[in-house]
Amino acid sequence: MSFSSVLITGANRGIGLELVKQLANSADPPTHIFATSRQPDKAKVLNELASKSSNIHVIECDVKNEESIYHLVSTVSSQVGCNGLNLIINNAAIAYKHTLATVNVQDLIENYHVNAVAPLMITKQLLPLLKTSAENGHKTLVVNISSTLGSISKYRKICVGDYQYTYRASKAALNMITRCLWVELKPIKISVVSICPGWVQTDMGSPDADLTPEQSVTGLLKTIENLSEEDGGKFFTFDGKPNPW
């Protein structure tokens, strides 16, 4: 892979865990794979992977906690040094099911915090390391794992379901954050995109979903690898097709 350092949030299960697996087992793995988990002591499979690969650094991080993010930045900085950080994959997410009858303020705020605010704050705090990477001439990228459920233009074509007020709204917000970040960071050669991983057979998805984690992540990594500077500020499907905002 063209990235020598990668940070993945929410790496203890599902898509995040599969990203760590495939990156570590690739023909040209990154030198540093930073894998965050809110409770790393319970991330059995992730810790097993790390025990077999010195490239994997498991880091405790609660993306809702500023002090935890500061600790994350310090840990990453101590490893990458003057090389900077090449790639952030903001993957950590939650999804509460609510209709109008059941939706409440607390769950709405938590969905927005984890799914939209946290990716922005993590990117903000890691910006010095991203800038160093870009200044060194490396491809430097922020990937926000979004969802087609956050696409406003596709809303009428997708079943409303129970996620409309919490998950959908937070992912729509994340897409706007992607666009805003790209506008600000493009002049310093840092690209930002949103990518939908598809409907995946994970705890957040469903056993009946279209894709296995392996299929989704294989497509995600291929899409990320093939992104060019012209692709910045856009929204893609896991297999690299344009996705409407």
UniProtKB/TrEMBL annotation:
Domain of life: Eukaryota
GO cellular component: cytoplasm
Record has Metal-binding as a keyword: no
SUPFAM superfamilies listed in its UniProt record: NAD(P)-binding Rossmann-fold domains
UniProt keyword Acyltransferase, yes or no: no
GO molecular function terms listed in the Swiss-Prot or TrEMBL record: oxidoreductase activity
Record-linked InterPro entries: Fungal_SecMetab_SDRs, NAD(P)-bd_dom_sf, SDR_fam
Assigned keywords, A-Z: NADP, Oxidoreductase
Pfam families referenced in this protein's UniProt entry, alphabetically: adh_short
Family per similarity comment: Belongs to the short-chain dehydrogenases/reductases (SDR) family.
Protein name: Oxidoreductase
